[in-house]
Specification:
6-stranded mixed sheet; 4 helices; elongated; alpha+beta; 2 domains
């Protein structure tokens, strides 16, 4: 289920995604991808492993026509986005056309794109500077909101409980971002007199002006003894 929001007030939370500039490393990557495609042509999305890293590539082949590339660019990019999402099971961003390959015999042209799964993009940002909170990821074609939750792995021994807490906290963060909810939490610590065992209980209270649903788990990974969760959904502007 998709959520509908107005974005007017939240530009300070936006992480913009733009195409990378050409450099020597990128030129080498393009040449490598073209060689791999020539050796084993494919249609759709594919992960190509190279010596210098992994490349997420999409190949879209369409019949030749007299229309200019600008007139069909949007259609090709939509096909590339759909193919990438189906193959990698998540949205991909930073789409960039790498090359066009023409086949005069079959009268078709293949358009090669590079892209990056949304989870990989967020992990890269997190690796540079760890953060916990909700953000908007703005791309030229689509916008997404994400919620990143980092929980102490030692505190939660039950995985199901930890997953549930992460989802609740993610909804709180998104609610705060969009609906201005007010959240408070209390931690109750109990000590058993006979055994000396210490237990803690966290009680979360929330007052909000709306609700959030449809959050999907994008990724889960470990970092510095923390379990990091990434939740997301696509933003669709409400139309009258």
């Amino acid at each position: 289920m998709r959520c509908f929001f107005s974005l007017t007030m939240f530009f300070s939370f936006i992480v913009s995604v733009s195409a990378q500039s050409f450099n020597t490393e990128k030129t080498s990557m393009i040449n490598y991808v073209k060689r791999m495609y020539s050796a084993a042509p494919f249609e759709g999305a594919k992960l190509i492993e190279g010596d210098n890293g992994s490349y997420y590539v999409v190949a879209i082949t369409i019949p030749n026509n007299s229309n200019s590339i600008d007139s069909i660019k949007n259609i090709i990019e939509i096909k590339a986005q759909d193919a990438a999402k189906i193959t990698f099971a998540e949205p991909c961003i930073k789409f960039e056309m790498l090359s066009t390959i023409s086949d005069d015999i079959k009268k078709v042209t293949t358009y090669l794109f590079s892209c990056e799964p949304l989870s990989e993009f967020i992990k890269t940002i997190y690796a540079k500077q760890a953060f916990d909170g909700a953000k908007i990821i703005a791309t030229p074609k689509n916008n997404y909101f994400i919620s990143v939750i980092a929980l102490d792995s030692k505190k939660y021994t039950n995985e199901s409980l930890k997953d549930r807490v992460a989802l609740i906290k993610a909804k709180q963060q998104v609610n705060t971002l969009f609906n201005g909810s007010v959240i408070s939490s209390d931690v109750i610590i109990k000590t058993e007199e006979k055994t000396g065992i210490i237990t803690s209980t966290e009680i979360i209270r929330e007052q909000s002006m709306g609700f959030v649903e449809g959050l999907e788990t994008l990724a889960k990974f470990s970092s510095n003894e923390k379990s990091v969760y990434i939740f997301y959904n696509e933003i669709t502007n409400k139309r009258n």
